[in-house]
Specification:
Number of helices: 3
Distance between the termini: 32 Å
Helix content: 10-25%
Radius of gyration: 14 Å
CATH architecture: Alpha-Beta Complex
Strand content: 25-35%
Largest sheet: 6 strands, mixed
Structural class: alpha+beta
Length: about 140
């Protein structure tokens, strides 16, 4: 029997390729968020009830890609208290073109580099490093 998952505020993909993690830099209107990076994804549309449907839609919209979902990493909360359901995945092809009015840039980082960015305050929501750590516990790299 499938378990019932509470509808999250938003979904994000912790995308992995060659033992690196994709982070994106959104185009922000709030100057406090300039220079902040996070995982790709976004809010569920009002009619969406399945977080995976939203995740695949967001990957197509933001990054023009399809992904293979590896599994759920967990539910994490932003500094404002919104809940984000994070899924691990792999891109099925090259990324791009990027959604020009939403995504400024992308970068692939090792977990150690994500930790450095975390320490420097460059991550947007505050849960990114915790999600990477949880991912590495659930899905260890060879």
């Amino acid at each position: 029997m499938a378990r019932k998952v509470k509808r999250p505020y938003a979904v994000r993909a912790l995308l992995i390729e060659n033992e690196r993690i994709l982070l994106i830099h959104h185009i922000f209107r709030d100057p406090a968020l300039f220079g902040k990076w996070t995982f790709p994804g976004g809010r569920l549309d009002p009619h969406e009830t399945d977080p995976l449907v939203s995740l695949h839609r967001e990957m197509r919209e933001e990054l023009s890609i399809e992904i293979e979902v590896i599994g759920e990493v967990g539910r994490f909360y932003s500094r404002t208290g919104s809940d984000y359901l994070i899924f691990a995945g792999r891109p099925l092809g090259p990324i791009g073109p990027l959604q020009p009015d939403e995504i400024r840039d992308t970068v692939w980082l090792t977990p150690a580099e994500v930790y450095e960015w975390h320490c420097k305050g460059k991550l947007q929501f505050g849960f990114e490093m915790k999600a990477v750590s949880m991912y590495l516990k659930k899905y260890p790299w060879p």
